Amino acid sequence: FSVAGWWCARTIREKDKENKIVAVTKDNNLYSPPLITYFLGKKVDSIGYSPQWLTNLKVELVCGEVKKLDRKNNRFILSNGESIVFEKALITTGGLPIVPPIPDQETNGVFTLTTQQDMQKVSEFVKSQKAERVTILGGGFIGIKTAEAFMELGLKVTIVELSNRLLQNMLDEKGSYYLEEAFKRAGVEVLKENTITEFQAKDGKLVGASLKSGKYLPGNLAVIAIGVRPNLDLLVDSGIKVNRGIIVDEFQQSQRPSIFAAGDVAETKNLITGERNIVAVWPEAVKQGKIAGMNM
């Protein structure tokens, strides 16, 4: 039950006050994923949604993980064996972290940072292991927000980015230049056109990272933040048409009339260029959720 799902439910309730809405989440509570780095950096006190919001929308929350879509019977099967039958469904499973095949990435001290559980693990590690230096692989949106969090905690931060500038998909060259200069003034090391080729471990714990350039970065903490891919795991053998994401039309509807998709898992068509792509940003998820809700 992500931001797209939240806005879908709100939009449905504007038109339909009574019919049943069920939301499924694999977490034990509802929270705002973009806030996890701010919570880690102690900029906000909470990332959770108020339970009263669900009550006001008359949304029934089911905590569990959907493992499969039963396309013949219009139902989702949960990991505990229970099932939820639906007339119309919105899939908003979001994205999973992209993790390149770097040797020793399973070493204690190497993390991703896209979920509340990730945040809790990183926070506990920083405290218990007294981390002082962190290497962040990725200079995109996730990497930048992660760097900001560790700066707030007083850690020495190094950003390693494969391209020739930061936020290359969001900023032009001038904007990227000013962002990099701001990081440098704050004491952050920025290494462009480079990547991690291997993590170095001692007794199962991270001690550093080797780069393509030959440079070695010491430190017992690293975060892989190069982006996300659509979470399509539950759609195996579902009959839903997918490419990079679930292929939807301008109504956020898949080729199956009863199933819609929105957010990071949906592949939409750019009405200007005609190209299909996934726009994995918060405002787009909000808009897609509203459109799905109107049409559902």
Please give a quick description of this structure.
The chain is of the alpha/beta class and 296 residues long.
What is the count of helical runs? 7
Q: Tell me the series of helices and strands, N- to C-terminal.
A: HEHHEEEEEEEHEHEHEEEEEEEEEEH
Structural class: alpha/beta
Quantity of strands, as a count: 20
User: What is the share of helical residues?
Assistant: 25-40%
Into which percentage range does the β-strand content fall? Answer: 25-35%
Main sheet properties: 5 strands, parallel
Round the Cα radius of gyration to an integer and report it.
Answer: 21 Å
Shape: globular
**Strand ordering within the main sheet:** 8-15-9-10-11
Query: Runs with pLDDT <50, length 5+?
Result: none
Report the end-to-end length measured between terminal Cα atoms. 16 Å
Average pLDDT taken over every residue? 92
Task: Write up this protein.
With 296 residues, this protein is an alpha/beta fold. The protein has helices at 3-15, 36-40, 51-57, 116-129, 141-152, 173-185, 282-295, and strands at 21-25, 59-63, 66-70, 75-78, 83-85, 89-91, 95-97, 110-111, 133-137, 156-161, 189-192, 196-202, 205-211, 216-218, 221-224, 228-230, 246-247, 259-261, 266-269, 276-277. A five-stranded parallel β-sheet has the order 8-15-9-10-11, covered by helices on one side. The radius of gyration is 21 Å and the shape is globular.
Main features:
three-stranded antiparallel beta sheet, 7 helices, 296 residues, five-stranded parallel beta sheet, alpha/beta
